Amino acid sequence: MVVKIVGHRTLAEVTNEINTEFYFQHILSQRSCPHVLSAYACSTRRRQFDPQLGYMYMEWAPYGSLQDLQRRLRENPK
Prior knowledge:
Elements: E1 2-8, H1 11-29, E2 39-45, E3 52-58, H2 66-75
């Protein structure tokens, strides 16, 4: 499992973003596509100082993120 962390200035902003992303990721992961990672849960954490934090608990991607793949392809096109 991997934990994605999102930070914003307000708890409302982070709650909105993490809940929206979790909702869509969870819906997509129910489609049984091997190329879509499962999203298990999400939560937020109120902190005394910025940033406020949101967490999404997801399936681990053994070959890195989509961003990692894009970077590797740019650096080493075939």
